[in-house]
Amino acid sequence: MTKKTLQVAPYITDIIARLQEAGYETYVVGGAIRDLMLGREPKDYDISTSATPEQVKDVFGRRRARIIGRRFKLVHLYQGMEIIEISTFRRMPEKTAKVPAKLKDQPVPENMIFHDNEFGTSEEDAWRRDFTVNALFYDPVSHKLIDHTKSGIDDINNGIVRAIGDASLRFEEDPVRMLRALKLVGQYGFKLCPETETSLRECLPLITHAAESRLTLELEKILQNIHCAKIFSSFHQYGFLSYFLPFLHDNWNTPAREYVMELLEERNNRITQGRYRVSVSLAVAAITLPFAEMLVGFGEKGKLWEYSTETNDQLCNLVSEVFKPHNLVKRLVFSAQRILIMQTAFLHFQKTTKVISMQGYAHARELLMIQNAVTWHSKELPVKWPHEIHHSTTHGDKRR
């Protein structure tokens, strides 16, 4: 236990204090601590407590707290427009858990975890986590930082991703942990410790046993991440990309892939500068565009393609092909397709008012501005195609 002051958001401290006042041991856990120690603003906060989900609900009331999940029972606590995830301390589950019925006829890793709702102590919870850099516990009320593994603080300071315990066993229990290890490599510039790297490379085929829905959700999170280009590079470096996005892997050593990375980096820069918001469909369109130029365009960076109904159909199919085996939400795919289809309109249409009034204009314009910054460097395009007020987002989640 170490005394340390981390700048946790005041409302998070208030939530933790309230649970502690009710008699429950409670901490900030996981990635938020890692970010704070590295001087970064946490994307969100996770809280872990000795209180069961039902007890958390009793503390905050049924209107604010909602129990979710089957495999992992959690509480979503509503704080204004934000949702705070609160979990109960867990211990390693018994190995006698039944394999889900839908997987009974399929070969699955012997130690794969399907149920994880066995409550435990804070120390047991730390030792069942994936990596030492994710196993720190912080009490913002008393300013105590707890490192049960005795390696987490040093590994954060030294930029090391180290599996807790037997790395091969950890990856077999949950193959998605390999993806998360490589996200840490890409996002933070960390390195895998030798034992963890060896196990990861040996266990890569296990990712085929992970639920498709979980992997697709992870993909969407990566596309929202301003470090997504570096994350994809780390996936390729360690051989994971061939399982996760085989199309991108197969085209890695091509000019189109290089253009993809340039577009993503510019998108990320513009988000960081506050010039545009996060959009998954925009990222999907940016990744697809260079391959569209090769398939239906003039085969040259920044040349786009001629508008036609046949071309539009090909673009629609290409989006699905680039992101196989993931089944992206249809609304997201349609939005990405619309962004791509509108690109030629920007270069060839003279009546700007008609294009500006189209649904999805804002996302499509942003991709145009990204291309312009990377390739064309035209001063006229931003003037001809101004920011638009109406129809700026698709229905639903604005990040799409």
Could you please describe the fold and organization of this structure?
There is one protein chain. With 400 residues, this protein is of the alpha+beta class. It folds into two domains: 1-155, Beta Polymerase, domain 2, CATH 3.30.460.10; 254-384, no CATH class. It is 48% helix and 9% strand. It is built from 20 helices and ten strands. The chain has helices at residues 10-21, 31-37, 53-60, 122-127, 152-158, 167-173, 176-188, 194-203, 212-224, 228-237, 241-244, 246-250, 255-272, 280-295, 309-322, 330-341, 343-348, 352-356, 361-376, 380-384, and strands at 2-3, 26-29, 46-49, 65-68, 74-79, 82-88, 137-139, 144-146, 160-161, 191-192. An eight-stranded mixed sheet has the order 1-8-7-2-3-6-5-4. Strand 4 (65-68) and strand 5 (74-79) form a beta hairpin. Helix 7 (176-188) crosses helix 10 (228-237), helix 13 (255-272) runs antiparallel to helix 14 (280-295) and helix 14 crosses helix 16 (330-341). The longest helix is centred in the middle third of the chain and has 18 residues, at 255-272. The protein is globular, with a radius of gyration of 23 Å. It starts with a strand and ends in a 16-residue tail after the last helix. The model is unreliable at 390-398 (pLDDT under 50).
